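Progress narrative, work stream C.
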Amino acid sequence: MLGDQQQAGKSQLVYQNAFQWWFLKPAYWSSWLAVGFLFVLHLLPIQVADKLAIVLGDLARNINAKRRRIARKNLQLCFPHYSEQQIKDSLKKHFRAQIRSVLHYGFFWWSSKKRLQKIIEIDGQQYIEQSRQAGRGIIIMTGHSVGLEAAVLAITLHYPISGPFKPMKNPLTNWLVAKGRTRFGTILYTRQAGLRPVIKDVRAGQVMFYLPDEDLGEKHCIFSDFFGVKKATIPVLGRLSKNCKADVLPCVSCYDEAKRKYIVHLLPPLENFPEGDDEADTRTMNQALEKTIMLCPEQYFWTMKFFRTRPEGEDRVY
């Protein structure tokens, strides 16, 4: 009886992702056209999407002045040694990579396991196996890169995963993304559920993805260096690692244009982590995040406002 009650309580925390009849209303017809385009595209060789991404990426860069300014500012802050030409080249590569990742969504949502394993591979899977053999939980720490969905899929194909889900503004897109992430058994929790059910899952053998790089505001944050710039960061990872009895593996998914596949890079677990000091643990986390970003810097999500919150007395950067 108690087990049934616990299971019922857990099911209430799981993100419910059901198709809604009102997705068929005219307001969503343009979204359905985009979905249909992605479905057709996934039936073709992946190089078709890659070539199309060059054209659409350049178009997006030229017409979206706001995101272009944000990305330029981020690159200037994080890479002050870059010349103007290097900034321009990075912006061009980034927007192409960002659009390419969107065009690849059809492959992620509808491709078979066999095809996914051909276009996504893991480098460093032995680190997961070593931690599991040692009886440790697994937290995969990654940033907001354009290859994030490929990273989640790659791990899902081999290990059970659970984690929180942040709903998107478009309900139809939200349904498709959540459906794509759960089609191989991933458990998604509502944001209201907090981290408690995820911690229990990690202790029980599930793998957790944790993204620490988003600027969530001044509340509960500390300012830690990120590419030499003070960044508002939530100091949670060290505590999570301790509570979950888990190793933290830095990760990034990079698309290799020559091989036409995503390489999901898993790095060795963070050493002497956590130390038990929030500032020291956050500094270690950000340094590891920087290391993963530098494996394919143009594929990091530079259009996000990572430095929106500033320390007292500092001017806004955006």
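Work stream C, second folded protein:
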Amino acid sequence: MTALTATGRSGRALELARLGSRVGGAYAAGSARQLFASAERRGELRSDRRLRSSEEVVETLGSMKGAFMKLGQMASYLDAGLDPEVRRQLSQLQADAPPMSPELAASVVVSELGALPEELFDTWDPEPVAAASIGQVHRALTRDGRAVAVKVQYPGVDAAIRSDLDNSATLLRVVRLAFPGLDAGSLVAELRDRIGEELDYCLEARNQAMFARYYEGHPFVHVPTVVPELSSRRVLTSELVVGSRYEEVLDWPQDERDLAGETIFRFVFGGLYGMNVFNGDPHPGNYLFHGGGRVSFLDFGLVKWFRQQDVDLLARMVRAAVTEPDDHELRAAIERAGFLRPDPSLPDRQVADYFRHYYALVIEDREVEFSPDYASETLRHFFDAGNPVVKRANVPPPFVVLQRINLGLYAVLAGLRSRGNWRRVAEEVWPWVAAPPSTPIGEAEAAWRRRTGRRLVGDPTLRVAPTADPRGAG
């Protein structure tokens, strides 16, 4: 693949330099009332199937295996490559939750915040602009004129999901189909904890606020600010952001898709090495795009905070796979992290060849494309139960979310067909390399890090507990 021309890069650098100075309110141009008025999806979500009581929520979402709707959503965009039986199982988990009636949504707000939405907000749109597996989103204006998005959880959905999580037979069957030698019990226990956390909007608010604080003033990454006084365990109010949806961006020019992909790539891995954290839901619906590489990141319900020793293990694997290639050291790091059960019959080269596939796009110093073929091949590789390495492979509990992130990220970037020299971008993010900026976005980000003191070694000023887990934060 040919690199971008010098003229193209020069033009992009000039434009990005201009865009880099626009932060904060630039992500949502126009007045708050103009933003509020653009609720174009209201008509799409009107439905006679509205849920009108908590009993209906439990019955409807329970019958659809509410906890496993997330897996169905993943299957819908991870797409090809799964074993037919695994795909058949996952396809049964896909479902769309109907929205709540305005009265039921208002009752949740009253029970959580103590007053009707019309009393708490200057303007409240009773029709949701988005409905998902756990809750739905309404637009509103605060009393002081801020446009906000208010996520309201379905009443009773916690009971429906926890019931599914307590009865994990379906998930265990799917997991064992994919990985015959997996410690499925530990894996499901970790998934239960992570998915269960998505029900707690207080935790999500803390996660989102942490990301927003870390990325404050960033030239391309935007995280909506939380409005804590209008948030609770089942209601989350944050800054309203408008932008282009993922499906729209697929038709944007190649340069724009390249920039968007680079920002997402930097956000995912910059978070790991900068905060010891992954936002665990790289779903196409969790981004809003603004052009010029600017992206707003939404939904922080599933966030995995890593211990420093876990990040160090991941870094050790990357070094042995990519920057300091060593098959024996790579295998040792993989076994130490718990991704592979020791088996002397497996040669180091066979183990290294299997795991090195996941680093394919950053091994060579050249421009490559995240293609749908590569994403599908990676999925097939991951679920290839006939591979001798897979038969001994494991997904250790601390890294369960990591696999979801990797596969989801590859699918998202493959949909964009983003091109770039990912090796050079990665070397900027890897702290043991700390390479100079290789792109205009990299130059803008480096300037932001110098200005803010944000480091790519695990920022201790943002670590809220020894385990880097915000659940203990106030």
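Residues 371 and 414 are 5 Å apart (CA to CA). No further action is required on this item.
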